[in-house]
Design brief:
7 strands; 273 residues; 13 helices
Amino acid sequence: MKTSHDQESVYEAVRKGYGEIAKSGSSSRSTSCCSRNDVAQAVGYSAEQLAALPEGANMGLSCGNPTAIASLRAGEVVLDLGSGGGFDVFIAGRKVGPTGRVIGVDMTPEMISKARRNVESYRRQGGLDNVEFRLGEIEHLPVADASVDVVISNCVINLSPNKPQVWREIARVLKPVGRVAVSDLALLQPLPAAVRDMVEALVGCVAGAVLVEETERMIRGAGLVGVQLKPKPGYVDAMESWEDPLYRQIAEKLPAGTKPSEYFTSLEIIARK
């Protein structure tokens, strides 16, 4: 278990890294290896969804498509953990329609500012006024008990140094029979210490990843049921084939003859309260 000092160090590293991404408008993978839309389409977003987004909402940070696996319905209240520039919030907002609501929570002030600037464009494009963004940590969500129908998150929970607390918070804010749809990275086997210690890998969600079976234990430990975990190896394979700089650095630190997709995978997580 990380000490409070260790946890704060992780928070600061993540805030700094994602603050820089917010300022530049993209992650390294969307400038060095492929476009932001390439990354999003590789994990299942349609060209139509991407074209409808406000400028700058897509920063190439996805490792899955939680809005698709969530099967969102009109009128639902949705909470996005680690909402960044609003990418999944704006997509979810169109799905839940004028009677629904989508709340994005992010701990990086620069991301919240970026997302809030995009709200007016979202309103003009779709005629909807159903999204908001709140500054806060996913371990201490600024959301009332039993107030949310669906919790989504896209490649964010791995960044938390206290994942069991995140899952307890998810259970707290969900309404009875509320559901979870998360895309994240998970380990297939333990990472070498040299990879775990890379700050770049931490910001890229890799160093903070835990084993698939540990993820399931944390979810069930929070009281959630109906847990389904589906590995999606195509994401890591795509990043390798695009020679993503982070994944190349990781590959250089792995044992000879091995590759990143043997160690971690994109994981679809579904559960309910």
